[in-house]
Design a protein that fits this description.
Blueprint (H helix, E strand, L loop, with lengths): L1 E8 L3 E6 L5 E6 L3 E2 L8 E6 L10 E6 H9 L11 E9 L11 E7 L1 E8 L12 H4 L3 E7 L3 E6 L1 H17 L6
Parallel strand pairs: 2-11, 6-8
Antiparallel strand pairs: 1-2, 1-9, 3-7, 4-5, 5-6, 7-8, 10-11
């Protein structure tokens, strides 16, 4: 059995991220997210997390996951997020030896809802359907039936981290960032 964390985007899209990414769910007010000029629309800004043991308050990039994936996969952009309170799932890259990002980092993904922990046996995970492969293959490693038989796509975390790193690179290289 392998554990995943289920995320819902809109009413119909279910995604599964590996449990190893230490998902943490929090509700954040839009006013607590500080927008960064010159960023892609999917990047809502940064959120100042609770103060750590060293007295510093680490910044967390907050990304609208539906918007990011629609951009990456070439889909029509989703409707803008509604409401003052946002459900943010913080995932952390615990990779070692250059897999994904070279050091542990976290990102906040805005989702519509959480499904929670989902345990799947290898037999329950299927390859991507042939018709979905061209658009989903870079970002999903397979699919599984969850939540009453609905299909959930298993997120390819290295691809997600690469997309997040691309956002960071764009921020750093943007000549008009600070006006």
């Amino acid at each position: 059995m392998k554990d995943y964390f289920g995320l819902r985007l809109g009413k119909h899209v279910l995604l599964l991220v590996p449990w190893e990414c230490s998902p943490e769910v929090m509700v954040v007010s839009r006013r607590e997210i500080y927008p960064i000029p010159g960023m892609a629309d999917a990047c809502l800004g940064v959120y100042s997390q609770r103060v750590g043991a060293n007295g510093h308050s680490p910044l967390l990039w907050v990304v609208d996951l539906a918007d990011l994936l629609s951009d990456l996969m070439g889909f029509q952009p989703p409707l803008p997020l509604e409401g003052e309170e946002l459900t943010v799932v913080v995932i952390t890259d615990h990779a070692k030896d250059g897999e994904m990002l070279p050091k542990q980092q976290s990102i906040g993904l805005v989702v519509s809802a959480v499904v929670g922990k989902v345990s799947l046996s290898p037999e329950e995970v299927e390859p991507l359907p042939a018709k979905a492969k061209p658009v989903l293959a870079p970002y999903c490693t397979g699919v599984a039936r969850i939540d009453g038989g609905k299909i959930g796509a298993i997120v390819n975390l290295p691809a997600l981290w690469s997309a997040a790193a691309m956002i960071e690179r764009n921020r750093v290289s943007s000549p008009n960032l600070w006006g």
